[in-house]
Amino acid sequence: MNKPAMQIRMVDTISQYGKIREEVDQAIKEILESGVYINGPAVAKFRQDLADYLEVGSAIPCANGTDALQVALMALDLKPGDEVITPSFTFVATVEAIALLGLRPVFVDVEYDTFNMDPGKIEQAISPKTKCILPVHLYGLPADMEPIMQIAMRHDLFVIEDNAQAIGADYIFSDGRTEKAGTIGDIGTTSFYPSKNLGAFGDAGALFTNDEDLAKKILMICNHGGLTKYFHECIGVNSRLDNIQAAVLGIKLKYLNDYNYARQKAAQEYNKLLSRVDGILTPAIPSNRKHVFHQYTLRLKDGREKRDTVQKLMADRKIPTMVYYPVPNHRQKAYSALNPGRISLPVTEQLCNEVISLPMHSELDHEQIRFIAGNFLDCYSQA
Question: Is residue 65 classed exposed, middle or buried when 0-12, 13-18 and 19+ CB atoms within 10 A define those classes?
Fold first, then answer.
Protein backbone atom coordinates (compact mmCIF):
# COMPACT_ATOMS: atom_id res chain seq x y z
CA MET A 1 0.00 0.00 0.00
CA ASN A 2 3.02 2.30 -0.06
CA LYS A 3 3.00 2.87 -3.82
CA PRO A 4 2.48 6.51 -4.93
CA ALA A 5 -1.17 7.40 -4.42
CA MET A 6 -3.50 7.95 -7.35
CA GLN A 7 -5.02 11.41 -7.20
CA ILE A 8 -7.74 11.24 -4.57
CA ARG A 9 -10.03 14.16 -3.78
CA MET A 10 -12.25 14.47 -0.73
CA VAL A 11 -14.87 15.90 -3.10
CA ASP A 12 -14.53 15.71 -6.89
CA THR A 13 -16.57 18.56 -8.35
CA ILE A 14 -14.22 18.73 -11.35
CA SER A 15 -15.08 15.30 -12.72
CA GLN A 16 -18.77 15.86 -12.00
CA TYR A 17 -18.70 19.09 -14.00
CA GLY A 18 -16.98 17.30 -16.89
CA LYS A 19 -20.01 15.05 -17.35
CA ILE A 20 -22.49 17.95 -17.61
CA ARG A 21 -20.15 20.54 -19.11
CA GLU A 22 -22.14 21.21 -22.29
CA GLU A 23 -25.44 21.71 -20.46
CA VAL A 24 -23.89 23.97 -17.83
CA ASP A 25 -21.84 26.06 -20.24
CA GLN A 26 -24.82 26.63 -22.50
CA ALA A 27 -27.07 27.65 -19.61
CA ILE A 28 -24.51 30.09 -18.23
CA LYS A 29 -23.90 31.54 -21.70
CA GLU A 30 -27.62 32.21 -22.14
CA ILE A 31 -27.80 34.03 -18.81
CA LEU A 32 -24.73 36.13 -19.57
CA GLU A 33 -26.18 37.09 -22.94
CA SER A 34 -29.56 37.96 -21.40
CA GLY A 35 -28.07 40.41 -18.91
CA VAL A 36 -30.57 39.23 -16.26
CA TYR A 37 -28.64 38.04 -13.23
CA ILE A 38 -31.07 38.36 -10.29
CA ASN A 39 -34.63 36.99 -9.94
CA GLY A 40 -34.82 35.77 -13.50
CA PRO A 41 -36.44 32.79 -15.22
CA ALA A 42 -33.74 30.36 -14.07
CA VAL A 43 -34.54 31.11 -10.42
CA ALA A 44 -38.29 30.72 -10.95
CA LYS A 45 -37.82 27.41 -12.76
CA PHE A 46 -35.43 26.00 -10.18
CA ARG A 47 -37.75 27.04 -7.38
CA GLN A 48 -40.63 25.09 -8.90
CA ASP A 49 -38.51 22.11 -9.93
CA LEU A 50 -37.09 21.85 -6.41
CA ALA A 51 -40.56 21.98 -4.83
CA ASP A 52 -41.75 19.29 -7.26
CA TYR A 53 -38.75 17.07 -6.51
CA LEU A 54 -39.27 17.33 -2.75
CA GLU A 55 -43.06 17.13 -3.06
CA VAL A 56 -43.38 20.18 -0.83
CA GLY A 57 -45.70 23.15 -1.11
CA SER A 58 -43.04 25.82 -1.52
CA ALA A 59 -39.29 26.02 -2.02
CA ILE A 60 -37.70 29.44 -1.59
CA PRO A 61 -34.08 29.81 -2.76
CA CYS A 62 -31.71 32.08 -0.86
CA ALA A 63 -28.03 33.04 -0.80
CA ASN A 64 -26.64 30.23 1.38
CA GLY A 65 -27.51 27.61 3.96
CA THR A 66 -26.66 29.77 6.96
CA ASP A 67 -29.02 32.47 5.72
CA ALA A 68 -31.67 29.80 5.29
CA LEU A 69 -31.44 28.90 8.97
CA GLN A 70 -31.56 32.54 10.07
CA VAL A 71 -34.50 33.35 7.81
CA ALA A 72 -36.39 30.28 9.08
CA LEU A 73 -35.98 31.43 12.68
CA MET A 74 -36.99 34.98 11.75
CA ALA A 75 -40.12 33.71 9.99
CA LEU A 76 -41.34 32.09 13.22
CA ASP A 77 -41.23 35.46 15.08
CA LEU A 78 -39.04 34.11 17.86
CA LYS A 79 -37.96 36.69 20.42
CA PRO A 80 -34.55 37.24 22.06
CA GLY A 81 -34.20 34.85 24.97
CA ASP A 82 -36.41 32.17 23.43
CA GLU A 83 -34.81 28.73 23.49
CA VAL A 84 -34.11 26.44 20.55
CA ILE A 85 -33.26 22.80 21.24
CA THR A 86 -30.56 21.53 18.90
CA PRO A 87 -27.57 19.15 18.86
CA SER A 88 -24.09 20.38 19.66
CA PHE A 89 -22.61 17.81 17.26
CA THR A 90 -23.13 19.79 14.05
CA PHE A 91 -21.46 22.42 11.89
CA VAL A 92 -21.34 25.78 13.65
CA ALA A 93 -23.84 27.43 11.25
CA THR A 94 -26.73 25.68 13.02
CA VAL A 95 -25.86 27.36 16.31
CA GLU A 96 -24.60 30.58 14.74
CA ALA A 97 -28.00 31.37 13.23
CA ILE A 98 -29.68 30.85 16.61
CA ALA A 99 -27.21 33.08 18.47
CA LEU A 100 -27.25 35.87 15.88
CA LEU A 101 -30.93 36.47 16.61
CA GLY A 102 -30.43 36.63 20.37
CA LEU A 103 -31.98 33.20 20.87
CA ARG A 104 -30.47 30.60 23.19
CA PRO A 105 -29.34 27.23 21.88
CA VAL A 106 -30.13 24.42 24.29
CA PHE A 107 -27.95 21.48 23.42
CA VAL A 108 -29.05 17.86 23.61
CA ASP A 109 -27.02 14.74 23.03
CA VAL A 110 -27.05 12.59 19.90
CA GLU A 111 -27.39 8.88 19.20
CA TYR A 112 -24.05 7.09 19.01
CA ASP A 113 -24.91 5.00 15.98
CA THR A 114 -26.69 7.62 13.81
CA PHE A 115 -24.90 10.84 14.95
CA ASN A 116 -28.32 12.54 15.02
CA MET A 117 -30.34 14.19 17.79
CA ASP A 118 -31.52 11.66 20.38
CA PRO A 119 -35.32 12.08 20.67
CA GLY A 120 -35.15 10.58 24.16
CA LYS A 121 -33.15 13.58 25.37
CA ILE A 122 -35.47 16.32 24.10
CA GLU A 123 -38.29 16.53 26.66
CA GLN A 124 -35.95 16.92 29.62
CA ALA A 125 -34.47 19.98 27.86
CA ILE A 126 -37.83 21.72 27.37
CA SER A 127 -38.51 24.79 29.53
CA PRO A 128 -41.17 27.53 29.49
CA LYS A 129 -38.87 29.46 27.15
CA THR A 130 -38.56 26.66 24.58
CA LYS A 131 -40.12 27.59 21.26
CA CYS A 132 -38.46 25.39 18.65
CA ILE A 133 -36.69 22.08 18.04
CA LEU A 134 -33.98 22.20 15.39
CA PRO A 135 -32.75 18.71 14.42
CA VAL A 136 -29.85 18.28 11.99
CA HIS A 137 -29.85 15.53 9.37
CA LEU A 138 -26.15 14.85 9.73
CA TYR A 139 -23.86 13.29 7.11
CA GLY A 140 -26.83 12.51 4.84
CA LEU A 141 -28.97 10.50 7.29
CA PRO A 142 -32.30 11.96 8.47
CA ALA A 143 -32.83 12.40 12.18
CA ASP A 144 -35.60 10.26 13.70
CA MET A 145 -38.37 12.71 12.82
CA GLU A 146 -41.50 10.82 13.90
CA PRO A 147 -40.82 10.98 17.66
CA ILE A 148 -39.42 14.50 17.28
CA MET A 149 -42.64 15.67 15.63
CA GLN A 150 -44.72 13.92 18.32
CA ILE A 151 -42.80 15.76 21.05
CA ALA A 152 -43.21 19.07 19.21
CA MET A 153 -46.97 18.55 18.93
CA ARG A 154 -47.32 17.65 22.62
CA HIS A 155 -45.50 20.82 23.68
CA ASP A 156 -46.72 23.15 20.90
CA LEU A 157 -43.23 23.74 19.51
CA PHE A 158 -42.02 24.65 16.03
CA VAL A 159 -39.68 22.31 14.16
CA ILE A 160 -36.99 23.55 11.75
CA GLU A 161 -35.00 20.88 9.94
CA ASP A 162 -31.37 21.62 9.11
CA ASN A 163 -31.17 19.59 5.92
CA ALA A 164 -27.88 21.00 4.63
CA GLN A 165 -26.37 17.50 4.34
CA ALA A 166 -29.29 15.26 3.39
CA ILE A 167 -31.08 16.60 0.32
CA GLY A 168 -32.94 13.74 -1.34
CA ALA A 169 -32.87 11.47 1.72
CA ASP A 170 -36.10 9.68 2.70
CA TYR A 171 -37.75 9.18 6.08
CA ILE A 172 -40.28 6.36 6.46
CA PHE A 173 -43.01 6.79 9.10
CA SER A 174 -44.49 3.92 11.08
CA ASP A 175 -47.65 4.06 8.97
CA GLY A 176 -45.60 3.43 5.82
CA ARG A 177 -45.67 6.91 4.29
CA THR A 178 -42.37 8.33 3.06
CA GLU A 179 -41.35 11.99 3.11
CA LYS A 180 -38.18 13.74 2.05
CA ALA A 181 -35.85 15.07 4.73
CA GLY A 182 -36.47 18.79 5.12
CA THR A 183 -40.19 18.61 4.35
CA ILE A 184 -41.49 17.16 7.62
CA GLY A 185 -41.24 20.04 10.09
CA ASP A 186 -42.65 23.56 9.86
CA ILE A 187 -39.65 24.69 7.80
CA GLY A 188 -36.73 22.86 6.22
CA THR A 189 -33.46 24.50 5.22
CA THR A 190 -30.60 23.40 3.02
CA SER A 191 -27.24 24.48 1.64
CA PHE A 192 -26.06 24.13 -1.94
CA TYR A 193 -22.40 24.69 -1.08
CA PRO A 194 -20.31 23.17 -3.91
CA SER A 195 -19.39 20.04 -1.93
CA LYS A 196 -23.01 19.12 -1.14
CA ASN A 197 -24.87 16.30 -2.88
CA LEU A 198 -26.64 19.03 -4.86
CA GLY A 199 -23.92 21.65 -5.12
CA ALA A 200 -23.81 25.04 -6.82
CA PHE A 201 -20.73 26.71 -8.28
CA GLY A 202 -20.68 29.06 -5.31
CA ASP A 203 -22.82 29.77 -2.26
CA ALA A 204 -26.55 29.05 -2.41
CA GLY A 205 -29.33 27.72 -0.19
CA ALA A 206 -33.07 27.22 0.12
CA LEU A 207 -35.99 26.85 2.52
CA PHE A 208 -39.00 24.52 2.22
CA THR A 209 -42.45 24.60 3.78
CA ASN A 210 -45.98 23.33 3.26
CA ASP A 211 -47.42 26.39 5.04
CA GLU A 212 -48.48 29.04 2.50
CA ASP A 213 -48.34 31.88 5.03
CA LEU A 214 -44.83 30.89 6.12
CA ALA A 215 -43.75 30.62 2.48
CA LYS A 216 -44.93 34.16 1.80
CA LYS A 217 -43.16 35.47 4.89
CA ILE A 218 -39.93 33.64 4.06
CA LEU A 219 -40.01 35.08 0.55
CA MET A 220 -40.46 38.58 1.98
CA ILE A 221 -37.71 38.21 4.55
CA CYS A 222 -35.25 37.05 1.87
CA ASN A 223 -36.10 40.16 -0.18
CA HIS A 224 -35.63 42.97 2.37
CA GLY A 225 -38.98 42.26 3.98
CA GLY A 226 -41.23 42.90 1.01
CA LEU A 227 -42.74 41.44 -2.13
CA THR A 228 -43.03 44.76 -3.98
CA LYS A 229 -40.01 46.94 -4.61
CA TYR A 230 -39.63 49.79 -2.09
CA PHE A 231 -42.51 48.48 0.09
CA HIS A 232 -41.39 46.59 3.20
CA GLU A 233 -43.86 44.71 5.38
CA CYS A 234 -41.39 43.19 7.85
CA ILE A 235 -37.72 43.36 8.76
CA GLY A 236 -35.81 41.31 6.24
CA VAL A 237 -32.41 40.57 4.79
CA ASN A 238 -30.85 40.49 1.35
CA SER A 239 -30.55 36.79 0.59
CA ARG A 240 -31.26 35.86 -2.99
CA LEU A 241 -30.13 33.13 -5.34
CA ASP A 242 -28.60 34.47 -8.54
CA ASN A 243 -29.59 33.17 -11.96
CA ILE A 244 -26.27 31.51 -12.76
CA GLN A 245 -26.36 29.39 -9.59
CA ALA A 246 -30.03 28.61 -10.19
CA ALA A 247 -29.25 27.41 -13.71
CA VAL A 248 -26.42 25.17 -12.49
CA LEU A 249 -28.57 23.75 -9.69
CA GLY A 250 -31.48 23.19 -12.05
CA ILE A 251 -29.28 21.04 -14.28
CA LYS A 252 -27.79 19.10 -11.38
CA LEU A 253 -31.20 18.54 -9.81
CA LYS A 254 -32.07 16.29 -12.77
CA TYR A 255 -29.17 14.05 -11.76
CA LEU A 256 -29.53 14.24 -7.97
CA ASN A 257 -31.02 10.76 -7.60
CA ASP A 258 -28.15 9.38 -9.69
CA TYR A 259 -25.60 11.28 -7.58
CA ASN A 260 -27.13 9.95 -4.37
CA TYR A 261 -27.27 6.41 -5.73
CA ALA A 262 -23.57 6.59 -6.66
CA ARG A 263 -22.76 7.69 -3.11
CA GLN A 264 -24.84 4.85 -1.67
CA LYS A 265 -23.03 2.30 -3.84
CA ALA A 266 -19.67 3.72 -2.80
CA ALA A 267 -20.71 3.47 0.87
CA GLN A 268 -21.75 -0.16 0.40
CA GLU A 269 -18.36 -0.96 -1.06
CA TYR A 270 -16.55 0.88 1.74
CA ASN A 271 -18.64 -1.08 4.27
CA LYS A 272 -17.67 -4.43 2.78
CA LEU A 273 -13.99 -3.56 2.97
CA LEU A 274 -13.93 -1.91 6.39
CA SER A 275 -16.59 -3.60 8.54
CA ARG A 276 -14.56 -6.71 9.32
CA VAL A 277 -12.16 -4.85 11.66
CA ASP A 278 -13.34 -4.80 15.29
CA GLY A 279 -12.10 -1.30 16.11
CA ILE A 280 -13.77 0.32 13.10
CA LEU A 281 -17.51 1.04 13.14
CA THR A 282 -19.10 1.73 9.76
CA PRO A 283 -22.16 4.02 9.37
CA ALA A 284 -25.46 2.77 10.74
CA ILE A 285 -28.56 2.93 8.54
CA PRO A 286 -31.85 2.44 10.46
CA SER A 287 -34.58 0.65 8.51
CA ASN A 288 -36.86 3.72 8.55
CA ARG A 289 -34.36 6.02 6.85
CA LYS A 290 -32.54 6.26 3.50
CA HIS A 291 -28.97 7.59 3.77
CA VAL A 292 -27.56 9.76 0.95
CA PHE A 293 -23.98 9.84 2.32
CA HIS A 294 -22.99 13.46 2.12
CA GLN A 295 -20.12 12.14 4.22
CA TYR A 296 -18.90 8.61 4.80
CA THR A 297 -18.03 8.73 8.49
CA LEU A 298 -16.41 5.99 10.55
CA ARG A 299 -16.00 5.69 14.30
CA LEU A 300 -12.65 4.46 15.61
CA LYS A 301 -13.28 2.93 19.03
CA ASP A 302 -9.66 3.44 20.12
CA GLY A 303 -10.23 7.19 20.46
CA ARG A 304 -8.71 10.50 19.46
CA GLU A 305 -5.02 9.64 19.69
CA LYS A 306 -5.28 6.70 17.32
CA ARG A 307 -7.75 8.56 15.07
CA ASP A 308 -5.37 11.50 14.73
CA THR A 309 -2.44 9.19 14.04
CA VAL A 310 -4.40 7.40 11.31
CA GLN A 311 -5.29 10.74 9.77
CA LYS A 312 -1.63 11.81 9.72
CA LEU A 313 -0.53 8.51 8.17
CA MET A 314 -3.20 8.89 5.47
CA ALA A 315 -2.08 12.46 4.79
CA ASP A 316 1.49 11.22 4.39
CA ARG A 317 0.16 8.99 1.60
CA LYS A 318 -1.67 11.99 0.09
CA ILE A 319 -5.08 10.51 0.81
CA PRO A 320 -7.42 13.12 2.32
CA THR A 321 -9.60 12.48 5.34
CA MET A 322 -11.61 14.90 7.47
CA VAL A 323 -12.88 15.10 11.03
CA TYR A 324 -16.44 16.43 11.19
CA TYR A 325 -16.31 17.73 13.97
CA PRO A 326 -13.32 17.82 16.35
CA VAL A 327 -14.84 20.29 18.86
CA PRO A 328 -18.56 20.29 19.72
CA ASN A 329 -20.35 23.63 19.69
CA HIS A 330 -20.96 23.67 23.44
CA ARG A 331 -17.17 23.65 23.87
CA GLN A 332 -16.57 26.47 21.38
CA LYS A 333 -15.40 29.75 22.93
CA ALA A 334 -17.95 31.73 20.93
CA TYR A 335 -20.89 29.94 22.58
CA SER A 336 -19.62 29.28 26.09
CA ALA A 337 -21.41 32.33 27.51
CA LEU A 338 -24.75 31.09 26.16
CA ASN A 339 -24.52 27.93 28.26
CA PRO A 340 -23.02 28.71 31.67
CA GLY A 341 -21.91 25.71 33.69
CA ARG A 342 -20.85 22.32 32.46
CA ILE A 343 -23.14 20.55 30.01
CA SER A 344 -23.14 16.77 30.01
CA LEU A 345 -23.21 15.45 26.44
CA PRO A 346 -21.17 12.26 26.74
CA VAL A 347 -22.04 10.78 23.34
CA THR A 348 -21.22 14.04 21.57
CA GLU A 349 -17.87 14.21 23.37
CA GLN A 350 -17.12 10.59 22.48
CA LEU A 351 -17.94 11.07 18.81
CA CYS A 352 -15.69 14.12 18.55
CA ASN A 353 -12.85 11.84 19.63
CA GLU A 354 -13.72 8.98 17.29
CA VAL A 355 -15.16 10.19 13.97
CA ILE A 356 -13.19 10.32 10.74
CA SER A 357 -14.60 10.74 7.23
CA LEU A 358 -13.18 9.21 4.05
CA PRO A 359 -13.49 10.70 0.55
CA MET A 360 -17.10 10.55 -0.62
CA HIS A 361 -18.59 11.87 -3.83
CA SER A 362 -20.54 10.71 -6.85
CA GLU A 363 -17.41 10.17 -8.99
CA LEU A 364 -15.65 7.56 -6.84
CA ASP A 365 -14.87 4.39 -8.76
CA HIS A 366 -14.16 0.83 -7.65
CA GLU A 367 -10.38 1.20 -7.91
CA GLN A 368 -10.32 4.40 -5.87
CA ILE A 369 -12.52 2.95 -3.12
CA ARG A 370 -10.35 -0.16 -2.81
CA PHE A 371 -7.22 2.02 -2.78
CA ILE A 372 -8.57 4.33 -0.06
CA ALA A 373 -9.95 1.52 2.10
CA GLY A 374 -6.82 -0.60 1.74
CA ASN A 375 -4.58 2.24 2.79
CA PHE A 376 -6.90 3.14 5.64
CA LEU A 377 -6.76 -0.40 7.03
CA ASP A 378 -2.99 -0.39 6.68
CA CYS A 379 -2.69 2.96 8.48
CA TYR A 380 -5.08 1.78 11.20
CA SER A 381 -2.96 -1.31 11.85
CA GLN A 382 0.18 0.83 12.06
CA ALA A 383 -1.26 3.53 14.33
Answer: buried
Distance of alpha carbon 263 from alpha carbon 256, whole angstroms: 11
Give the count of beta carbons closer than 10 Å to the beta carbon of residue 91: 18
- Let me know if domain 16-253 sits in CATH 3.40.640.10: yes
> Span 342-361, mean pLDDT?
95
Average pLDDT of every residue of the chain = 96
Topology of domain 256-382, CATH: Aspartate Aminotransferase, domain 1 (3.90.1150)
3-state secondary structure of 356: strand
CA geometry: angle at 307 spanning 302 and 309, to 5°? Answer: 115
The alpha carbon of 57 is separated from its chain's Cα centroid by a whole number of angstroms, namely: 21
**Helix 65-75 / helix 212-222 crossing angle, nearest 10 deg:** 120
What's the pTM? Answer: 0.96
Say how far apart CA 295 and CA 199 lie, in whole Å. Answer: 14
- The number of C-alpha atoms within 13 Å of 64 and in the hemisphere containing its C-beta is 12
368 in Cβ contact with 6 (< 8 Å): yes
Q: pLDDT for 110-137, tens place per residue?
A: 999 999 999 999 999 999 999 999 999 9
Give the DSSP letter of residue 360: -
Report pLDDT for 336: 82
- By CB atoms closer than 10 A (0-12, 13-18, 19+), residue 49 is middle
Domain ranges of the chain: 16-253, 256-382
* Closest-CA residue to 11 (of 374, 359, 375, 295): 359
